[in-house]
Amino acid sequence: ALPAGYVRLDQDILSPLAGKKQLYTYQTLDFWEQIKTPGMSLRCSGLYLSQFRHTSPHLLASGDGKKSAAIIGDVYIHPSAKVHPTAKIGPNASISANARIGAGARLINCIILDDAEIM
Questions:
Q1: Which one of 33, 81, 85, 119 is at 20 to 30 Å from 107 when CA atoms are compared?
Q2: Residue 18 forms part of a structural domain
Q3: pTM greater than the 0.90 cutoff
């Protein structure tokens, strides 16, 4: 028995809509990845970051570890985030708005959400 209020997307929502011909599709040539687990969100973030390298390289961070944090691989840092110069970030890291990354922090394959503080 399933817990009260539990909803199965494929069986409880999509199948009934398809049976009533109320389900539509959208065709795209862009990449698409299904996110079923938190780990898949990390994979998708990495895919977007690698895509930025080709389509929007100005969005990716850079740093040498002297005046700014050392950046390895594809990394996004929101302009409002504060990253200590001794931090080492990447590959595949995304740091959101107003996040604070402290001295000596090492971030790999992660998504840091708005207003988070990493010490």
A1: 33
A2: no
A3: no
Cα dist. 82→46, 69, 86 in Å?
Answer: 21, 10, 12
How many helices (DSSP H) and strands (DSSP E) are in the chain? 2, 9
Distance between CA atoms of 109 and 94, rounded to whole angstroms?
8
Q: Retrieve residue 95's tokens.
A: 């740091």
Separation of first and last alpha carbons in the chain: 43
Report DSSP letters for 18-72, one per residue: HHTT-------SS------SHHHHHHHHHHHHHHHHHH-GGGB---BSSSS-EE-
Residue found under tokens 């009934």 = 16
**Per-position pLDDT tens, the chain of length 119:** 778 888 888 888 888 888 888 888 888 888 778 888 888 999 999 999 999 999 999 999 998 888 899 999 999 999 999 999 999 999 999 999 999 999 999 999 999 999 999 99
Q: How many domains does the chain have?
A: 1
